[in-house]
Amino acid sequence: MIESKKMWTINRPDEQLVQLFIDKLGLPSIHAKILVSRGIIDLDEAEAFLHMTERNLHDPFLLYGMDIAVKRIQQAIENAEKITVYGDYDADGVTSVTVLTTALERLGANVEYAIPNRFEHGYGPNSELFMELHATGTSLIITVDNGISGIKEVELAKSLGMDIIITDHHEIGEALPKADAIIHPRHPDGNYPFGELAGVGVAFKLACALLGEVPAELYEIAAIGTVADLVPLRDENRFIVKEGIRRMRHTKHLGLQALLKVSATEQSKVSEETLGFMIGPRLNAPGRLGSADKAVHLLKAEDPMMAMAVAEELDELNKERQALVASIAEEAEKAMGDLYGDMLPYVIVIAGENWNPGVVGIVASRLTEKYYRPSIVLSIDKESGIAKGSGRSIAGFDLYESLSKIKDLLPHFGGHEMAAGMSLSIEHVELLRERLNDIGKRSMTDDILTPRLHIDVPIEVSEIDVNVLEQMENLRPFGVSFEKPIFLLENVYAESVRKIGAAKNHLKLQLTAGDESLDVIGFGQGELADDMSPAVKMSVTGDLQVNEWNGRKKPQMLLEDLTVTERQLFDLRGVQEPSRWLPSIPKKNTVFIAFHAKSIEHFKPVLGEMDMRLYDQQQIEETDHLVLLDLPNEAKQIQSIMQSVNPKRVYLHFYVPESIYFEGIPGREQFGWFYSLLKKRGSFDLRKEIHELSKHRGWKIDTIYFMSKVFSELGFVKIENGLALFVETAGKKDLSEAPSYQERERQIELEKKLVYAPYHELKQWFDALCDNAVNREEQQLWI
Fold it and tell me: Which helix (H) or strand (E) holds 95?
């Protein structure tokens, strides 16, 4: 058995709906299963989902306050007022700045932008920056991707004589800033049809309203921020990303071309993963380490050489960010060991002096992913006496709510169920650790602390082919609220199990079901190969992809997780030296069973202090791993062990000091000739004459002793002091009546089944034996 790393939750789509989608929409079965599993259960809804157009965009003037904002901006343009677009330092923020400033420039506006520095100004509206903007002549500030919480800062801007328009998508507090206009998809006084726009999505809607048309050239920029900010890929978001990706595959945008080049991404293969893992992090990097302005410079670049230079700079900053994250993560791991030892807390709280506050959230994500615990990573600034940090949570533990319960320790905190940011006095870090751990102890069950894998697309190997996977493009983009499918193949056989890679640290399986097969690659999971017996039946989950090699395409699965529920049988019969197979045996929960005392002595020099037990002499309780060292006297001994121990894995060595399988049982002609000799001579001295007889007849000495013993047991001879004396009065008896003859038959049959049978025959015999044991045990329970 191999247990899955995560607890699987399997959602099985309605088969009738799946068939309806196949019949009416002409979809491959896999595509139909994905749609039905994701809650798309109406044919019209499915059609609309598959064939989105610009009609999927809502009228921007449905956003509350849009008409007021547009009117004020148009007035500023007509009067040549200085407009400043005030953004945020992440990918959503810099793309929002790019979208809105580009639209305003098309209208001839006098526009500049300002982005706060994460370390100097913090997130959102900043009074110091607002005063600087006023001093340099700004009369209208338009916030993008921030502003909804800036009540005091907006009051300051208004007191200085500036007007301010807020565009934002973050959570709205109890009170709204007194801005000239607030454009927010979830405005309490509004009724916009879709409330999950990213910051760049709101900026894009404002651009549409100002221009009187959809700025098609800005889809690409809007798509990046939408993916990077992890908003649900539904409704407008879905179309913005889908259209943005389509255009990016043949874009002439200099900044994007440069980003794709430095990230070694083939332009024609751009996907949502490109935006999320290649472009987004590079646009995020400058804001994490300093000023985010470089990211906007790149997105607005008009010179190819300059675009390439800035892209390379962002690439270097991203590498620096990666190295910084790796360094802090290493320090955090060490700090965990010092704080918690081998015991995991309910909530991890780690603090380090002068850790970069811009990347501690990434480190927290890594800790949460590795240990599956809510994690908070804090950067300590001894000069200010303040610890600033970020936290990430797991399903079932509301991080924001938990922080709210201890807000007396937190002058500043914010976020939501799964992520939060905070600052507190250094003196309160230990209290934060203790009180959060206490909350976790009272609220988190073992079930919550077990990582989960949600699977909603169970499939058969026969459904998978290259065309089906390439047509998956019709269902993309995948993301929040329409996650990348996790496919499940159940009860398939591993025809081949191998370790691959230079370090042999990757796993390759060839799965079969009927006449169909599929390759599965498990990167970094090579150690699983040691835990798999031949032809093992398993269930696997993962992502399906098209692998292209030397111009040949074939489907393959990238392994996420697997489970083997059947008992596994490992064949050690062909390796005589225990020292060669011993390293493959698990060290924990393993019992070595011998059926003969002599075998204990044989194996003791190699097995040493291992847990060896003699059958019928020492109690054998339940264990995970069982090694059968030698051959039993009869099959029911194995059956008895399986019934009482019920191991997950069984390793079969079946050492036989003297095999008789190939010798067999002497034929009736041999027995007849020897009987005639004994009758004719009356006696035969086994001690003196056996070697001569062996040489004369070409029989082994053991064979002559065996026949003598059979005759003795049947009463044909009497053996005294090595002399076989013929008994004239013995009656007729069949050779098979002799106990030695019967024992030899059993021994040969056991060797045939256990020692010399091919593995697949041995496994069938073993499984049947164990099933019989289980059936008998169940019958006893009913009696």
Answer: helix 91-106
Helix H or strand E encompassing 655: strand 649-655
Kind plus residue range of the DSSP H or E element containing 644: helix 635-645
Q: Which pTM value belongs to this model?
A: 0.82
Report CA 617 to chain centroid distance, whole Å: 45
Kindly give, in sequence order, each residue whose CB lies less than 8 Å from that of residue 396, ignoring residues fewer than 6 positions away: 444, 447, 448
Give the C-alpha separation, 717 to 677, whole Å.
12
User: With 50 as the cut, is the pLDDT of residue 612 above it?
Assistant: yes
Cβ 714 vs Cβ 738: under 8 Å: yes
Judged against a pLDDT cut of 80, whether residue 416 lies above it is answered with: no
Residue environment code for 467-498, b if the CB has 16+ CB neighbours within 10 A, otherwise e: ebbeebeebbbbbebbeebbbbbeebbbeebe
d(C-alpha 455, C-alpha 539), whole Å = 12
Cα dihedral sign for 189, 194, 200, 205? negative
Helix ranges (DSSP H) in 427-583: 429-443, 466-470, 578-581
Residue 756 neighbours by CB distance under 10 Å: 16
Q: What is the pLDDT of residues 422-481, one digit of tens each?
A: 899 999 999 999 999 999 999 999 889 999 999 989 999 999 999 999 999 999 999 989
One-letter amino acid for residue 403 of the chain:
L
Q: How confident is the model at residue 772 (pLDDT cuts 50, 70, 90)?
A: low
Q: Enter the tokens of residue 639.
A: 């059956």
**What count of other Cβ atoms lies within 10 Å of the Cβ of residue 736?**
10
User: Residues 469, 546: contact at Cβ < 8 Å?
Assistant: yes
User: Over the stretch 308-355, which tens digit does the pLDDT of each residue have?
Assistant: 999 999 999 999 999 999 999 999 999 999 999 888 999 999 999 989
DSSP string, 680-715: HHSEEEHHHHHHHHHHHHT--HHHHHHHHHHHHHHT
What gap in Å lies between CA 685 and CA 720, rounded to an integer?
A: 10
What number of other Cβ atoms are within 10 A of residue 380's Cβ?
Answer: 17
Contact 189, 164 (CB under 8 A): no
Give the residue with greater pLDDT, 33 vs 641. Answer: 33
How, if at all, do strands 683-685 and 625-630 pair?
A: unpaired
In the DSSP assignment, the letter for residue 124 is S
Q: What distances in angstroms separate CA 96 from CA 54, 204, 468, one per listed residue? A: 20, 8, 36
Name which of 468, 443, 445, 441 is nearest 457 in CA terms: 468
What pLDDT does 534 receive?
A: 83
Q: How confident is the model at residue 783 (pLDDT cuts 50, 70, 90)?
A: very low
**For the chain, what percent of residues have pLDDT higher than 90?**
79
Distance (Å, rounded) from C-alpha 712 to C-alpha 143? 107
Contact 612, 578 (CB under 8 A): no
